Amino acid sequence: MLGLRAARSLRSALPKTKNAVALRPATRAIASSSRLRSEKPPAIYGEGAKPGEVPTDFQQATGLERLQLLGQMEGVDVFNTGPLIMSKAGTLEDPTLVPSYSEERIVGCNGWPSETHDMVWLTASNHRENSRCPECGNVFKLQFLGEAGGHHHH
């Protein structure tokens, strides 16, 4: 961006001709978003580190990572990452339900009863009836809690 002094010195350096184009100092419109007008940053943005300091994870976290850290501070598991409580083995007639707000969820099966085989990762999906563990035969079904056709990632 040319400053006023730079534009004046450039203008004096140009040849004085009849077809010369006059230069104006470059200007930029300032955006008037609420973020620029507010005194505090929105809660989804961290305050950052003070000059000369290395920021902590909490200070530099933004977006979903910050939401997760704020939830941990309040004792809430925002993304429900705990183990799926299973009181029985899932069958084709009565599968183990996997709650999800997404149309797919990764499920780890380590056998029934617990830890009878190594972890096998399965994809429970809204697009198919069931997901069955090839080791123990445990059946999982996605229990879709979100809106149909609602949040697509493109």
UniProtKB/TrEMBL annotation:
GO cellular component terms listed in the entry, alphabetical order: mitochondrial envelope; respiratory chain complex IV
GO BP terms: mitochondrial electron transport, cytochrome c to oxygen
Region (Disordered): 32-53
Entry GO MF terms: metal ion binding
The keyword Hydrolase is assigned to this record: no
PROSITE patterns: COX5B_2
The name this protein goes by in its record: Probable COX4-cytochrome-c oxidase chain IV
Native species: Serendipita indica (strain DSM 11827) (Root endophyte fungus)
